[in-house]
Design brief:
It is a single chain. The chain is mostly helical. It has one domain. It is built from three helices and no strands. The longest helix has 17 residues.
């Protein structure tokens, strides 16, 4: 397969349109979801949590997101991300 070079992204051909309601679309979506989970598995702690306010629930969510990103610290360093990129 020959290598094609483009001067800019605008010169590159776009993705081929997919036919609606094609069963292949579901297979593609499932495989992309599986690939995304493989790249970054999310750790969900089972159970129900109760919060006294919406703000407390949002704070818990932010802490959970931060913990998910901190677990991937070596990848973040390679990607050039710092703690300022993490939602505060």
């Amino acid at each position: 397969m020959p290598v094609r070079k483009f001067r800019s992204v605008a010169d590159m051909p776009g993705a081929q349109p997919r036919t609606p309601l094609d069963p292949e679309n579901l297979r593609l979506a499932c495989s992309l979801t599986q690939f995304a989970y493989w790249l970054h598995p999310m750790k969900h702690i089972p159970g129900v949590r109760k919060y006294r306010s919406v703000e407390e629930a949002w704070q818990a969510r932010k802490e959970w997101v931060r913990s998910q990103l901190v677990d991937r610290l070596p990848v973040r360093r390679i990607a050039g991300l710092t703690d300022s990129h993490v939602a505060a």
